[in-house]
Amino acid sequence: MNTTALxxxxxxxxxxxxxxxxxxVNVGFPAIVAAFTLAVPDIQWVVIAYVLTQTSLLLVFGRVxxxxxxxxxxxxxxxxxxxxxxxCGLTTGYGFLxxxxxxxxxxxxxxxxSGPALVTALFPEAARARVLGLYTMIFGIGAAxxxxxxxxxxxxxxxxxxxxxxxxxxxxxxxxxxxxxxxPPALPREAQTFDALGALLLAGAIAATLFSFNRLPHAGxxxxxxxxxxxxxxxxxxxxxAQQRRVAQPIIHLGYFRNPDFCLINGAHALxxxxxxxxxxxxxxxxxxxxxxxxxxxxxxxxxxxxxxxxAAPAAGWLAGRLSAERLVLIGMGCVALGQAGVALGAARxxxxxxxxxxxxxxxxxxxxxxxxxxxxTATLPRAERGVAGALGMLTRTFGTVSGATLLFxxxxxxxxxHVAQGMAGQEAFLAGLRIGFGCAAAIPILLILVVLRxxxxxxx
Length: 461
Known about the structure:
The protein is mostly helical. It has 17 helices and no strands.
């Protein structure tokens, strides 16, 4: 790839960067709670409003991007996001903040669903894996920068700074894409129709599924809400499948999922992202309880995982032409397992730089796996459906992180509470819970490796 080509990838990456930078909002949670006089549990709706909207619309916007053009949808997503960030920053009421977060989710859905398709459509197929490796690297950069930037901005400028600083990034990306990124070559295709009913059913089913994860920890006290969410999700997916079989141009062709290898790689991606989220979820608790690191140094240690993604993703894209996809997938899962096991076994026993190294190895695994996965899914679907392919990749990624936030924390808290009930000291019980959480995160990729090896041969084919 020449300099101009690389510049175009990073321009699209700049527009995408505002999505992983949303980790900044976590730093602003205490200030938001204080500003709106909220009960601490109410802050979850700031996350739910954004994540549910973004995720439920990904495949829908992927289909729209296939129909209308990846550049066009990406530009609208950048402009929409810039406006949404301004609305988030200007809000003086909690209800309006949630509305603005929904708007932000719409913009993120458009950007994520069209971004991978846009960057790959600008280059020959031989460069696809390298382009996707660079694009994946952007998520590592965003994850590394989000917490650090917010730590600098929130204290002097308040909670709204976590939104304000991203508005000019989206606006600049819009201008740069408009000026320097040409529309991809048009592909021959038949007249397109949009399945509105299928889109509505899919969005509702995904939203209900994600909300079910949110309600899972409260199953004992509010079982009816969980049952209703699960029922709505099942009904939505059943209706969506029936609708997709009926229409000539569905949101996504379900025939791809008749291939067990395609189902396996998508399920594995969600599970690897589930395991990988343990660093962001449990890592801060471990560092706060068992180290005397300053807040900035805590951010640096946590950023080790993101640095692993930054290093591994472009390397995996380069290796994709030299190693088979299944080999890269196995390497990625092996590194995730090794990093997670290192934290589980070494917590409170080894120097902090060994924990940072384990975080780094885990990030290398996630970056390697995700690049190989995106390349496989993008190659499986026709070029005319690259928007849906990219959206599917982002959808399984989000499913993994959302389910990880629920299931890993549930494992941690259950073990911790059980040990406390048995009379164990608080800090020891806390450590036992953390080790189980990271141990579960290590077991997931190990089990996936065994499944892949059992299939044998070139299972991605």
